[in-house]
Amino acid sequence: MFARLLSRLYFIRKTSFKRRMFFYLLAVSVIPVLLLGGAASWIAATTVQQEVNRNHQIILTQIQVQVDELVKRLDQVAVHLASDELVIKAVQLGPSLDSVGNAMEMAEKIQKQRNYSDIPFHIALWLRDYQKVFTTWDGLISEDDFSSARYINLAPMNFISMTIIPPNSYPNQSEYLLIRPVPMFEEHPAGILVVRLDQNHITDIFKQANLGKHRKLLVVNGNGTIVASQQQSEVGSKLTSTSELYRFWNNPGDIGETLELGDKKYNLSAQRSTLNDWTYIALTPSKELKEKSNYILNMTWGFIGILIVLWLIVVFISSNRLYIPIQRLTSKLSGGAMDEKAQTGDGLKEIDSYIQHMVVTNDQLQSVIGVLFPRFQESLLLGLLRGELSEQEIFSHSKLSELPISSSMFFVCLAEIDGYSDFSNTYNVKDRSLLHFAFRKMIEEQFANHFEVLTAAPMQGQVAAVIGLEHPTASTDEQLRRIGRDILKFVAEFFSFGVSLAISSAHKGYPGIHKAGKEAEGLLSYRLMLGTGRMIAPEDIAPDLKQSRYEIVKRQKLIIESISGGDLQAARTQLAELADTVVNNVRDSNTVRGLFSHLLGELEFLMQSLGHDTVKEFERDPYRELHEMTSIEEIVKWFDCQLFPEVINRLQSPGRQTTLVHQAILYVRDHLESDISLQLVADEIEVSTSHLSKVFKDITGQNFVEYVIECRMKLAMKWLAQTDVPIKEIADRIRYTNVQNFARTFKQYAQMPPGQYRNRFRS
């Protein structure tokens, strides 16, 4: 209602939101205070007695809190000192020469306690066993010179809580004595800690309470002894059991609020402290009630004035604090670059303008997302091909990406440019990208005429087409083969490079895309046997062809073993058998050269692993020589008569030690997926571990363990770059107990984690 009225004022309607909020808060907070103040004044004028009683309670509470706080703080000082190790040690050791250092530290600690407190008090430490007393006013004195000793001995000692002896309890006693045993809680303590407080300090608290001329205030302890009063002469005296005040103190409910003492009537209020069982009693002359009524009325309005000032301050601070979120929001929406007008203007209007700006920006982002969305779909498709997504991730990502293929069965057609290295050398980066894009679009269009299809580029020079069908039929395979032949035909007609492609069999569901991709990748590897520039399907791979590939790999491995062992004759025999296998099973000349290039690469790797620089040691490039040859007989003769003897010559030049290292390296390379140790290899080649370790270090320049790690990391890098084997499986296969150890070692070797290496290589 107040806000509605204020909103009609012209100057408020024209001001900023921040100032309007200030006026609204001020109205809501101050007007109720004024109404409440008026009601309180009226109640004070009509119900004087109730107001006086409440005033009594306020005063009593105020004084009680202050006195209790004073006693509590002094007790905290006493407890802190009485339980301090320095003080306890000083009590136990006494003022001897051996304990001078401890005594000085104890005195310094006690003095610090006085200095840190705003209460003027003195402290005395009574060393009862040594009849000495340390005081903050006279230093170390004799027990006889310590006047309070008599009072302390006479007073009942409380060993659980602090004992307080009020002034005038004994002759010539003018201070409050607060007593704690040292150590605490002992029935017969060796020391007594005494805190002395001038009674004027308590009297000052009463004076600050503004009790008036004739009002009295008494503080009575649990024994009926007056421990505090405006009149210091009353302190220390006891209430007589026959007096009316004694009965009021003992049971205020029996007498009521009015009590006659002498020839005057008083209104009484009492409040008992839970800290020390002291009773605070306020006595106000009845004739002062009317005067008190006016006083209370004035005090009420004065208090209201103070509240209004406080509310002004609170409202000012609150309005600023409430406006802070708007400022922060404005700053964030503006990108943190607000000009002076935005900082001092109407925040809500600024937010509205920024929201409009955000709407425009959102439209722009939608257009950007439209451009990037196909890339996200391709990333998801690559994840499916590589098997990097769980079933839950496949489900959530497929809904998000809205893949245009939702079939239940999937084929994968994997096409790869033949001789990609020559392709890379022939074209620059820009031309390669354009040719690869055209190649990919051509494959996508060929399949899209008949099936649901998505394409992706798993590796450089490759295009993978994922083909979805709901219910494949018997004619589906033939239709896919026909499209594959059309693709090869278009490539031969419109592109200057050759292509081989493989078409997998059908696999079920999105998880089957990975299986289909692996199958197509395996089929494509048969190019070495079947030749390039052709299409390969599962039915093209006959059992004897698989056996032939196994025989070729086996012969190549035996040749490397013979060369490493220095057995030229065995290497020649295995070369002849390899040539026979190639002649009987391979018809394509490029495939033949590829097989022998692979053998040449194995020989080169063997030499490099033993520290030989193949570039410097061969006069001509052996790969160039191999590709210049025109017949398999010429290739075999070159390996037999020239290359094998030359390689063995260079490997055996250091003698028997090099042979041992050759054998060790060969064993390591053949058993990277098994447990390898220096002892195991030494036993295999029949030498001692110490000799093998020394020879291996001398020849290769690295110790055995480092070499094993290097070989395993190279193998892991190859698998990460060229396969979709999960990282955990790679770690298991090269004998790492967990993925964390493997990842840490791989990062030290490759300067990046395995996952990042795979992504960077493929990107």
UniProtKB/TrEMBL annotation:
User: Which InterPro entries does the record match to this protein?
Assistant: Homeodomain-like_sf, HTH_AraC, HTH_AraC-typ_CS
Q: Identify the keywords attached in UniProt to this record, alphabetized.
A: DNA-binding, Membrane, Transcription, Transcription regulation, Transmembrane, Transmembrane helix
**Highest taxon listed in the record's lineage:** Bacteria
Instruction: One Pfam family, please name it.
Output: HTH_18
Q: Which residues cross the membrane?
A: 21-45, 295-318
- GO molecular function, a single term: sequence-specific DNA binding
HTH araC/xylS-type domain sequence ranges: 662-760
Q: Name the PANTHER family for this protein.
A: ARAC-FAMILY TRANSCRIPTIONAL REGULATOR (PTHR43280), HTH-TYPE TRANSCRIPTIONAL ACTIVATOR RHAS (PTHR43280:SF28)
Kindly provide the name given to this protein in its UniProt entry.
AraC family transcriptional regulator
- Organism classification: Bacteria, Bacillati, Bacillota, Bacilli, Bacillales
